[in-house]
């Protein structure tokens, strides 16, 4: 039995494999838009394990798996033995014998890595405190759809150096683009936590306007990520000057796009004028979670498909 391929962080797939995923995403999305049935994963089962709540992750994986002809089973740690102290390794041994793939949305990256080491089937990171690779897969595909290759472009990340930011930094090394990061003091990128081995594609800016200047894509996230709710008021004060507004978008390239992984708080990390404006592609970005994840599932379960 061959060892399964996992997608636990962005760099788990090589550039050539990611480009294949994007090609497959285009095909799969076009079939979806034509209402053309495509069931390569008939009789396959995806188990979705949620320790953190979700809207887009659950819906995109569940709907996507069904559109590929398979089925998806939702498990909450609150309703399973995982929430009652069963060792992660034991759960992985059992669950992976009853399904074809597992998606996990949890807290520490170490949990999903332990699960993957004991799993007989591919494991996908649906979000951890450290990384959110499926989100950036969708984000880059969305950029490519609208503007072409992202290689050599500049992405401005404004706000908290969270799991999404960390994954943008990994993706920059794989695809060869640049990330300008601006965070309030005390919230800077931690290279080791981000898994950064080089800094060729990353630059830190104290002033968010400087980070946005000349960028081809401006992106952000909520000021308070899940698990940090107790810091909400402190963060609101610290991040007050890190709001993406019309002025900041004017500093970027004239055709720069705006992205946000959602849910968004209008009036905090972004103004309504920007997120609801003509340069925002957040709804395409959200839909593309489903299409890129379908291509990912196809690849992890069937290998490279060309049809």
> Which stretches of 5+ consecutive residues score pLDDT under 50?
none
Overall mean pLDDT: 94
Helix share bin: 40-55%
| Spatial shape | globular
Question: What's the story with the biggest beta sheet?
Answer: 5 strands, parallel
SSE sequence, one letter per element: HEHEHEHEHEHEHEHEHHEHH
Helix- and strand-based class? alpha/beta
Brief overview, please?
The protein is α/β, with parallel strands linked by helices and 307 residues long.
Topology:
Blueprint (H helix, E strand, L loop, with lengths): L14 H19 L11 E6 L5 H12 L3 E6 L11 H8 L5 E5 L3 H9 L5 E5 L5 H15 L6 E5 L4 H13 L2 E5 L8 H4 L7 E3 L3 H5 L4 E4 L11 H7 L7 H6 L5 E4 L11 H4 L6 H21 L5
Helix pairs in contact: 1-12, 2-12, 3-4, 5-12
Folded structure, characterized:
The protein has 307 residues and is of the alpha/beta class. It has 12 helices and 9 strands. The protein has helices at residues 15-33, 56-67, 88-95, 109-117, 133-147, 163-175, 191-194, 208-212, 232-238, 246-251, 272-275, 282-302, and strands spanning 45-50, 71-76, 101-105, 123-127, 154-158, 178-182, 202-204, 217-220, 257-260. The strands form 2 sheets. It has a 5-stranded parallel sheet with strand order 7-6-5-8-9. The protein has a 4-stranded parallel sheet with strand order 2-1-3-4, sandwiched between helices. The protein is globular, with a radius of gyration of 19 Å.
